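Shift notes (night). Ran Sugar ABC transporter permease while the centrifuge was going.
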Amino acid sequence: MGVVTPARPTAKARPARAATRVRHRDGWWAALFLAPQVIGLLAFLVFPLGFAVVLAFMKWDGLGEKSWVGFDNFAAQLSDPDFGTAVWNTVKLAFLTVPVGLALALLIALALNQVKGKTFYRVVYFLPVVTSSVAVAVMWQIILASGDYGVLNRTVYDWFGITLPNWLEDPGWVIVSIAVVTIWSSLGLNVVIFLAGLQTIPPALMEAARIDGAGPIRVFRSVTLPMISPTVFFSTVVAVISSFQAFDQIYVLVNPDHNDGARTIVYQIYDLGFQNFEFGMSSAAALILLVLTLLVTLVQFGVQKRFVHYDS
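Came back to this:
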């Protein structure tokens, strides 16, 4: 009876097995390199978000036992005058900072696009963006302070004898002051973005419009603005979201506890959670802010189809 010798792998099978081992090894290395990012994403984004959603339906002071209250936290916030004031102030801040800030940044970018040394101006305008928001708020606090302590008020009074408002204390002016600081600190980012968008416009297209007799205003309306409309849309979405999330500069610049004119939604969330220790209420307010932000962003994406022109 003969002995059966197992067949040896063919020449084609060996490379296939080697390729399989290489793929498995590469998969393990990919998992190893992705693990820190995935763990960080789960630990600092997914889990906190899920915990906040659950906590919004509970009553909890941070130490005691949690109790389920359903939609009571949402109903309490929607009927709370302080939350209504915070929403109104946030909307006013968005209406002041977004159109004014973007229009000013676009004008500056149009001017810088015509001069030499753009890199230098980019750096100069971008400096407030990379400066600490606390430092920016303290600087503007010195400028806008009332009486003899404020640089602006004191200078105008000494030179012209005009008494200016208490920018940081008058409820009617405090949101305007916050808007000025916000526009100044974010102006450089929008200028750099718009300048990059302007430099993507083909010079031949601009020249053709001028040859056809189009003036500066017509060139801007018919060529420049449509060509940079995706950039304008991107900056608008980011600016609106940023205005809804305003907190740090307001917290340092003004004390919203003593001035309802500076109370925003994010400060309402902070006040409920870390001063009153009502974490359920705070989470409910945060979810309402999330829904408002999503709705406004969806509206922007819906409207942009009519005004934003993409190259095809």
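The chain has two domains: 13-55, 72-307. The radius of gyration is 28 Å.
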